[in-house]
Amino acid sequence: MEIGISTFVETTPDIQTGKVISHAERLREVVEEIVLADQVGLDVFGVGEHHRKDYAASSPTLVLAAAASKTKRIRLTSAVTVLSSDDPVRVFEDFATLDGLSNGRAEIMVGRGSFIESFPLFGYDLQDYDELFEEKLDLLLKLRESEKVTWSGKHRPSIQNLGVYPRPVQDPLPVWIGSGGTPDSVIRAGLLGLPLVLAIIGGRPVQFAPLVKLYKRAAEQAGHDGSMLTVASHSHGFIADDTETAADKFFPSTQQAMNVLGRERGWGYYDRSSFDAARSFEGALYVGDPDTVAQKIIHLRKNVGVTRFMLHVPVGSMPHEDVLRAIELLGKEVAPRVREEVVKWEAEQ
Q: Can you tell me the distance from the alpha carbon of 230 to that of 235, in angstroms, rounded to the nearest whole number?
């Protein structure tokens, strides 16, 4: 059972002061967070790609590369790379470079993107949303298969027996499919035999169990060994020394962030009752003291089949020292409890 962190490197106004941290300062903070995550024994750190004022990381690979030389063991991934509006050749080259700098610790998590700002920015038509992703994923997978590539498609110039460099340390370079939980996306990942990341940020996480079964079934029908494929969860949460402190610290920035997105997407108002319901044992928020969060992750592993858990923290802007403390508790207290319990449980199966 792998345990890690994901972040969108948000730069929203501080709830108490109204101050907005600069993009530069927040980027430097994230590198500190990655270094700490490595030091406390976490397995993976993911940085999401966005192209808007309230997020600082438009280039996850650069952020991860800044941390690569300062870390030793932790795996470094995007969360996600918006492949539909990017060029697969450049994506592969950037992550192969990161793989070399980190000596084989890079991963690519690709998705169609729940944010659409990158499409007009790079000149793509949203009407081609699905087609762009399928075509570019096809090219990305061909790039990792062989040094020289011949490929043609509709939305990008063809490639005729050209080499793409540098080559990564890992063969193949890991490519994950990020999914919001649609059947089509999990089937695609299964058919391709690629590991799957589910964004479990609402409802009851156990409701994702049928999707995991659908993913494994699609993989097996395509000739892949479903038992060998990894499923990860990307889930919002926060850890403090006691549960009420965790809830009280995490709620204000979460409420602000959820209501900003809610106004853009037509969601209902996010209030404390919504938050408290989501942090119940069956809810999708992993907020509490180390034991509370550990028990929820174990429950997710046993009932959904997730073998990698990524705690998304912060949501909105939180004090840097609070985020560091949450990372420390996740690595030193939560992760050991989860791993120990999962080992015992798997031995009994």
A: 16
